[in-house]
Amino acid sequence: MGTSAKFSPGSGTGNRSLSAATTGTGTAISFHDCRQVSWSTTYPGTAPTTGTVLIEQSPDASFAGTWNQLASIDCSQLSAGTDGYGTYPGQTGFVRARFTANADQPITVELNGLRP
User: Fold this and answer.
1) Which residues in the chain show pLDDT less than 50?
2) Which residue in 5, 21, 40, 99 is a FRET match for 72, CA 20 to 30 A apart?
3) Angle at CA 65, nearest 5°, toward 111 and 63?
4) Structure pTM?
């Protein structure tokens, strides 16, 4: 048995933590069944020049404390084609995207996992 992605291309919006957002906390998605997690950050129109998004994980989707940071994305670097994609090479629980500084243009953060 080989490995497979948790979400396949065109599978809908179930893997979107943030969707065309400029502020806020994204949806927490379960990756308990994955051995690796990846993320991609895109913008639908004009490139953002401000904003910071954290990719975070917690064993509990409703955890109210500080989540474990996996990555920090500087939204102003997205137009340069850098810092918008990444991977965490280990098991996680729930993963979400969260703004710590508002973006001036909307962005979308999609998550995926690699199943054993």
Assistant:
1) none
2) 5
3) 55
4) 0.92
